Amino acid sequence: MTAERSTVQPGDAAAAFPAGVLVVGTGLVGTSVGLALRRVGADVRLRDATPALAREAVSLGAGRLATADDPPASLAVAAVPPEAVGEVVGEILNSGAAEYVTDVASVKALPAARVGEHATDPGRYVGSHPMAGREVSGPAAALPDLFEGRPWVLCPDDGTHQQAVTRALALARMVGAAPITMTADDHDAAVALVSHSPHVVAALVAARFTAVAEQQVRLAGPGVADVTRVAGGDPELWTEILTANAGAVSAVLRGLRGDLDRVLEALETSADDRRNLRDVLRSGVDGRARLPGKHGTAHTEFATLVVVVDDRPGQLAALFADVGTAEVNVEDVRIDHSPGQPVGLVELDVRPGAEDQLGDVLRGRGWTIRG
Amino acid sequence: MTAERSTVQPGDAAAAFPAGVLVVGTGLVGTSVGLALRRVGADVRLRDATPALAREAVSLGAGRLATADDPPASLAVAAVPPEAVGEVVGEILNSGAAEYVTDVASVKALPAARVGEHATDPGRYVGSHPMAGREVSGPAAALPDLFEGRPWVLCPDDGTHQQAVTRALALARMVGAAPITMTADDHDAAVALVSHSPHVVAALVAARFTAVAEQQVRLAGPGVADVTRVAGGDPELWTEILTANAGAVSAVLRGLRGDLDRVLEALETSADDRRNLRDVLRSGVDGRARLPGKHGTAHTEFATLVVVVDDRPGQLAALFADVGTAEVNVEDVRIDHSPGQPVGLVELDVRPGAEDQLGDVLRGRGWTIRG
């Protein structure tokens, strides 16, 4: 596993990709790759099965249209849906459109298997997954800094040419991402764990609210809002993603279901045997503590100050201006909306020990501190 | 269902509770009730099974020590754990220490049944639940504005005296809360739905992280951090809460397990039959849309601006100062920490239509806007 970042200078891209980069598929991710690579001086050629999309990406500055006369690119990026990766990568390699190819699909084992079926030299392909995205899609939504600071996972296997890895690594670094290398199976298990399964569970919790009385829903507070936040995602897209990673997602959800059954048994059989319930809750605390916090370090417990603010424009500005005078770095911010009330609570997380200093400053400037 | 708020003047409490309020149990909630009532001029008497805790609450200004010579209080607040409510309320009513009693336990059906066993006139009791709390406990953690703007649920039944309801309503209003009336069963079903079950599910997701490789955990982003945020709660306390509301929690989790099984079946049997998977995800979107947003209204889709900020003290202050000049109200704020990177993303939610104005102002002041 590697995670590093270097300062990329204009011109570096020309050295890393002397024959340029071919982007096949100019949706959100492909066009963002083009924009980011153009910023560091790479020669970027664009094509899409829908030519109008490629022309739109060109008009946005993501590169120039690819032509049949282009020499083989140093690297191609197949920015197409998971189920199309095998065919597209095979076509690129077999036609000589590029020397090496990577893709950007959010699952990795399935595309790699399909590439093996379609490409005559699959070792020139290395799968990758930039862990960045937006709620919107299409070239117009592309951003040159979409990948800035985000993990970019590379999944070489025993047959992968070293040069394919080198060029995909260069791509990740050129667009500002932090490359991480793991096997395709490890990747798929990891995203099942950190993204796909939590999405399913958030949807399961949110689905409870479809058929209950309004007065019950009204009691919902910030906790359940957090748990269900990701459940708003597009059901069609998520059906595709979950289906493409069905085995890994199912493995995580089977384990979760086993724990759920232990909880249900503890709740439904004997109130005196709470051990299983307590064990599951303790595992939750332990697991939560392993999640990365700021700076990618393990979750740190911050001290929290809760400030009462009026719901008027400028109140947050006034608050943060006063926070600024305390010279305390705010690690996280949450706004807790009181139902039906013209008042909000702003929770400020700071390093333990800094809360007294910040609290004194804010009280001195007239803010009501709740904790 | 009612939800209202009125301006309480010092002196109003003396009129509402001419013979004062007796608080039994001076932990976080009981002491906070005392502090809030003292602020509006009520006569507050305090006692606790551990006399040192009552003395501590007195020293904090939450009231005076109760004595055996006190006349019956206008209202008593039994601020004791759910399993102790029945006995404590029975003792208060049977001894004549107060004319009417309420409690503050986070479940309501079980305490009401126990009061019926212990009190000779259980109609003088009305259950209630202020939906406010802190991660810390004890009188020293008490706050006079703990209940400010929070829902305070009252659960009268057919046998409840009207005067008990009137006095509990006055209590809720005096401490700044928003009273809501529903049956004990509806309350318990509601908190199972909005709080207890989401807590279990967050723990189930977080528990997956106890036994996986560090490189998998490293890919965790803001989504799973949201889903698991509440899982950090004290396992002992939550075991008590879940056990006291076992029936209602189990009913919610059984429904969730049914949907989970539909998802598992869709993932494990035929990739062609994705209908069940899509249906569950769609229900998640629909349920999420019903959750209250700011001002207790149904969830509104806000427009989101993503601003890139350096991780230095004063950056949030500078950002919000510039936001302030745009005269746009920020509805919500989230900070998205890039793993391993010295840069953060601040997501600002604003009313749809206001994002262009805010984006222009921030760009003009040198901020990088990602979306």
TrEMBL record, chains A, B:
Keyword list, A-Z: Amino-acid biosynthesis, Aromatic amino acid biosynthesis, Membrane, NAD, Oxidoreductase, Transmembrane, Transmembrane helix, Tyrosine biosynthesis
Q: Which PANTHER family does this UniProt record tie to the protein?
A: PREPHENATE DEHYDROGENASE (PTHR21363), PREPHENATE DEHYDROGENASE [NADP(+)] (PTHR21363:SF0)
BP terms from Gene Ontology:
tyrosine biosynthetic process
- Positions of the Prephenate/arogenate dehydrogenase domain: 19-299
What is catalysed by this protein?
prephenate + NAD(+) = 3-(4-hydroxyphenyl)pyruvate + CO2 + NADH
Which EC class does it fall in? Answer: oxidoreductase
InterPro entries in alphabetical order = 6-PGluconate_DH-like_C_sf, ACT-like_dom_sf, ACT_dom, NAD(P)-bd_dom_sf, PDH_C, PDH_N, Preph/Arog_dehydrog, Prephen_DH
Q: Which GO MF terms are attached to this record?
A: NAD+ binding; prephenate dehydrogenase (NAD+) activity; prephenate dehydrogenase (NADP+) activity
From which organism does this entry originate? Haloactinopolyspora alba
Q: What is this protein called?
A: Prephenate dehydrogenase
Per the UniProt record, which residue ranges are transmembrane? 15-37
High-level lineage: Bacteria, Bacillati, Actinomycetota, Actinomycetes, Jiangellales
Family to which the UniProt record says this protein belongs: Belongs to the prephenate/arogenate dehydrogenase family.
